[in-house]
Amino acid sequence: MQQKQSDFATLLYRAASLWRLRMDAHMRLWDMNMSSWEILWLLYRGDTRYNQYMLASRLGIETSRLVRLLDRMEKRDLLRRQPDPQDRRQNHIVITPSGFSLFEEISAGVTALREAILTEVDETDLEQGVHILERVLDNLLRILDDERRDRKIPQSAAGARPSRMSFPGQMPPGIVERRKNDRRAVGNTDRRQDPVSASNYPSHLERRKNGDRRSNTDRRKNDRRRTSPR
Question: Are 70 and 81 within 8 A, CB to CB?
């Protein structure tokens, strides 16, 4: 069973990656990529009004990356942001007539590519594949929901465990921050006590102005040799 799951996951990932590569190559003819195409596709359908957060969640990308994509597409007059009258902090993303035209222009090539990729896959196989992928997607969405709930659990004063989104071996944020503060305190103490600390040396621009080619590292080594007890 595990081997079959591994084979399925490998094939699914490889097929999705290659499909995306071919889509990106096709989109470059219009100075687009797969992500910007997906944005146009969602807005073109018009079945949901998307704000930036909803759109980022739907595409599975970070909000900061989505903002850069939206900025570029808005400059090309493919979409626009409309303030939400109920919440001024939110903007709804709306496709423009230029976006409609570009979507329809690109769609023919996208359809032809999809038909070529799915050649000799009959309707029965497609129905079964859709059923399988729907179940896979449901499982992924459930895992993401569980992770969001985990991150909302308040941390105890003793320090909570890292969330399931953390990398193996990664320390909780509180411990990381305490260690950073400890290093800063030690570093400040060292600079006050050390007569040959970096703060006592001229910048590289001052050294070049005076014709001094030595680095500050070499200067500190020499000064420490002279000041160290024999």
Answer: yes
- DSSP summary character for residue 178: H
Enumerate domains of the chain plus CATH numbers.
2-126 (1.10.10.10), 173-227 (no CATH)
Q: Copy the structure tokens of residue 42.
A: 């969602």
Tell me the sheet residues that pair with 80: 94
| Burial degree of 87 (CB within 10 A; 0-12, 13-18, 19+) | exposed
Q: pLDDT tens digits, residue range 29-40?
A: 899 988 899 999
* Sequence-distant contacts of 27-36: CB under 8 A, at least 24 apart: 27/106, 29/109, 30/102, 30/105, 30/106, 32/102, 32/106, 35/59, 35/61, 35/65, 35/69, 36/69, 36/72, 36/73, 36/78
* Radius of gyration of the CA atoms of the chain, in A: 28
Distance CA 127, CA 131 (A): 6
The answer to whether the pTM exceeds 0.70 is no
